[in-house]
Amino acid sequence: MNRSTGWRLAAASLAAVVLASAGTACSSSAGSSAADAGGTYTVWDPYPQFDGSSAWAKLLETCGTQAGVQIKRTAFDTSDLTNKALLAAQQGNSPDVLIVDNPVVSTLAQAGVLTSTKENKVDTSAVSPNLLAAGQIGGETFGTPIGANTLALYYNKAVLAAAGVDIASVKDWASLTAALAKVKAAGKKGITFSAIGTEEGSFQFLPWFWGSGAQLTHLDSAQAASALSLWTDWVKQGLAPNSVINNTQTTSWQEFATGEFAFAENGTWQLANAKKAGFDYGVVPIPGMTGGTAPAPTGGEFVTVPVQKKSARYGVSDKLVSCLTSADNSSATDTTLSYIAATAAGQDKQAAADPGLTTWVDSVKAAKGRTSDDLGTKYPKISEQLWTSVQTALTGSKPPQAALSAAQSAASAQ
């Protein structure tokens, strides 16, 4: 989800890898006829932390050169980019290539801003279907992911060892709760997460929600109530702190970094911070209610091609997208942003190069887009009711089932 923490990494670390690979990685999609196109192509992205001297900007230039065009790049804050894209479409001056957070894709597609991959000829055949689903609506695909991040459980090895907990025993909700109880009995703290009343709260609750077998179209199901009861019981029993009600993913991480907690639910974007924490840590997938890996939501951006008055421009746009998302270029970008590759081959390559990423690869393989299942623009409304129900239950205003029933009623009325 959260690029807000993903962008903590310095842009400089991308430079050597991207520039080393950019010269050849685009050649297969550029083609000898690209020079005939000429002109200037515009690219909008949500990476203002990367200035004109960054490897990302240089990669854009290289891809433009390979396609025989000049690139005019504009970077926006994520919160501004959607409105800018909608306004540009209304005015008929959309960029040629638009890079946006994956939940935004369906909003722009339904507004008629984006072309489908059938129209623009972008090849998505190698992309993992569960990641591609975040950009699909009405049976069509709009764009391709540049990579993905997701959630898992970080754990403090020393805290678990002192409490006599073998991480291999944590396989489902019951065994996780038992482990938290042992940690509390040993004088340490159990688990921290973000349950704040924003999209971050929904993002962190979804693995437990989906891990129960619940569906976003039925917020008040018995499965959903079991997930919310899990969180509520943890707080009541002191296995999770009351601070989770106001925690962002950043403040939740800060709690874990004190070394007092056994577990923290957080994302790939915290890997750099984990290595600086000063204690041995591990990572395991979030377990489903009865075992297995729970589907966690995917974060990360899609590279899309907006509608143009002159459809002939799509040919060059296709080449630009193909270059930006080629195996070598996306691998360098994903590494810097702590993303997992969007293709199975790329994921396997990452895991082989860094075995520490295996858990993250497994989590991404099981992950799910928030707008998947054809929810599209319905998702933000559903999410607001979901995080509201979490807040209502954790503060004790209503029991979990009642909180979720109210959420479903509100979501259905919109």
Describe the SSE topology.
Elements: H1 3-6, H2 12-25, H3 27-30, E1 40-45, H4 55-67, E2 70-75, H5 78-91, E3 97-101, H6 102-110, H7 117-120, H8 129-132, E4 136-137, E5 140-141, E6 144-145, E7 151-156, H9 157-162, H10 173-185, E8 189-192, H11 199-211, H12 222-236, H13 249-256, E9 261-267, H14 271-275, E10 281-284, E11 301-304, H15 314-324, H16 327-336, H17 344-353, H18 358-366, H19 379-394, H20 400-413
Parallel strand pairs: 1-2, 1-3, 8-9
Antiparallel strand pairs: 3-11, 4-5, 6-11, 7-9, 7-10
What's the quick description here?
The chain is α/β, with parallel strands linked by helices and 414 residues long. It has 20 helices and 11 strands. The strands form 3 sheets. A 5-stranded mixed sheet has the order 2-1-3-11-6. A 4-stranded mixed sheet has the order 8-9-7-10. Strands 4-5 form a two-stranded antiparallel ribbon.
Poorly predicted spans? 2-36
Radius of gyration: 22 Å
Based on Cα principal axes, name the global outline: globular
Straight-line distance between termini: 25 Å
Strand content: 5-15%
Q: How helical, in percent, are the residues?
A: 40-55%
- Kindly report the spatial arrangement of strands forming the biggest sheet: 2-1-3-11-6
The main β sheet shows up as: 5 strands, mixed
**Helix tally?**
20
The overall pLDDT, averaged over residues, is 90
How many individual β-strands?
A: 11
> Which structural class fits the helix and strand makeup?
alpha/beta
